[in-house]
Amino acid sequence: MTKVSIYMPVYNGSEYLERSIGSVISQTFADWELIALDDESTDDSRAILDGLARRDNRIRVFSKHNDGKGNTARNLAMMEKWAQGEYFFYMSQDDRIDADLLEKAVGEAEKRSLDIVIPDMLLEYADGTTSAVQGSYPPDGDHSLVFSGKEAFYRSIDFSIHGFALINRRLIDEDRQDTNHYDSDEYNTRLQFLAAGRVGFCDSTFYYYQGNENAITKRFSIRWFQRLDTAVMIDKLFSDTFHDHKSFPKLKSWLMAIYITLSVSYMREWANISPDERKAVIAHFRGFERNIKFGGYRMAVLRRLSPLERCFAVWYFFFGTCRNMKSLFRIYKGK
């Protein structure tokens, strides 16, 4: 059995593939396979992938029909059927990894009986510079920490720990995975944290590329509003797992921040959204507004938000929505 399967969905990534896959080929750990899934690219991506596969038989290239949905979770589920590794690791077509990442991650997994190993994570920009964000490093920079799956799940809610990790494939439960939304992979990663016995860290770096202006996370898309449905699912998962009131402010403030961000996106892009699309977007918002309960956590949520976010949140608490508050939006734009 191969030790590590690396999953890489590809769509028009010709500008990045040599660098991204090159960082995999350069690994000091040799027992890996890379499964590249080409989503009917219209550039030279498939030719580049085929060329790389001819140079290294650990690279396996597959294709799928592009359905226009950009659903990472669905692509990962497809790649899972072809994978042979004991562990899997996901990276986008424009990300890269340190040469010793797999060696250190597998080493920590085996030495400390870890189900999930989280490397350091830095944002990388088009000019080659990098920056750290919340969750880039383990708490207090301590790579020797080990969390239970439940604790890791809790910390992952607001990305105090990130999800670009080496994960034991036995944690994938097909019956519980969701593939309905463009960001379902965020829900599934949290399921994997929750199912893990032991979660730890390694001191090698994953570089999360921010310089691709065509990435779905950068260009406005109606699909963004599916995050509200995923948020409802995560809220339920969290509520089914934790029952002490001290745990909930972290979750509820994260949920409110998502709602506010998407409300601003909706108001900003309103003129560019067709009437039919607006109906679909409103349905996403109403699903959130109907299902997410803030109850006695309102003051705790407000304390965790920025001053501008508090304006939106207070309006939400009074009126049950803030997506149509154009005056608030004008304040937000002027920040």
TrEMBL record:
Gene Ontology molecular function: hexosyltransferase activity
Q: Where is the Glycosyltransferase 2-like domain?
A: 5-174
Name the coiled-coil region(s): none
User: A single Pfam family, by name?
Assistant: Glycos_transf_2
* InterPro entries cross-referenced by the UniProt entry: Glyco_trans_2-like, Nucleotide-diphossugar_trans
The protein's matches in Gene3D superfamilies, at most eight in alphabetical order, are given as: Spore Coat Polysaccharide Biosynthesis Protein SpsA, Chain A (3.90.550.10)
User: This protein is called what?
Assistant: Glycosyltransferase 2-like domain-containing protein
Species of origin reads Prevotella pectinovora
Upper classification of the source organism reads: Bacteria, Pseudomonadati, Bacteroidota, Bacteroidia, Bacteroidales
